[in-house]
Amino acid sequence: MGGAPTVLNMLINAPPSIQRPLPRKIAVMTGGAPPPTQVLSKMEKLGFNITHSYGLTETHGPATVCTWKPEWSSLSLDEQAKIKARQGLHHIGMEEIDMKDPGSMKSISPNAKTMGDDRAKDIIISGGENIRTIEVESVIFSHPAVLEAAVVGRPDDYWGETPCAFVTLKYGNNASVDDIIKYCRVRLPHYMALKQ
Predict the structure, then answer these.
(1) What percentage of the chain reaches a pLDDT higher than 90?
(2) Cross-referenced InterPro entries, in alphabetical order (predicted)?
């Protein structure tokens, strides 16, 4: 099975009345956006085995995957999810492709794996500090009441831009704007903290 992180989020938040136990581990490939580790961890707990792949729509489908190492299986599900949120090795036979910069921003981890970051257009510059929207979104996603989150830059006369979040709560939850802001302020550097 394959699907964007949004599809995985829908599965983990399906009403319990329609969820069924899986007869075996189900392999799932995800891509299209960096999946929040909380989503990956919850999918694993439901019985899905997630592989995160990275491709470039402008050139080719999945071109890298996070190749699993047996020693990682002994890690906690949260640690496994953090590893699976990264992309990894090039597919065999994939050669270098030259193309005008699509705006993808990647970084290399200490073990030489490619990590999916943001698109350059998604970076918020606030008072000279660069804020990656996926970092803020990941913290918001970890709040137990949050179903969906998207962070964008909001024009600010003083800072240039500040992070602004659009959040959908899980059915039956009533966390307030202040609850989400306080939750983020405890977990993020001050310059990345939400103001609204």
Answers:
(1) 24
(2) AMP-bd_C, AMP-bd_C_sf, AMP-dep_synth/lig_dom, ANL_N_sf
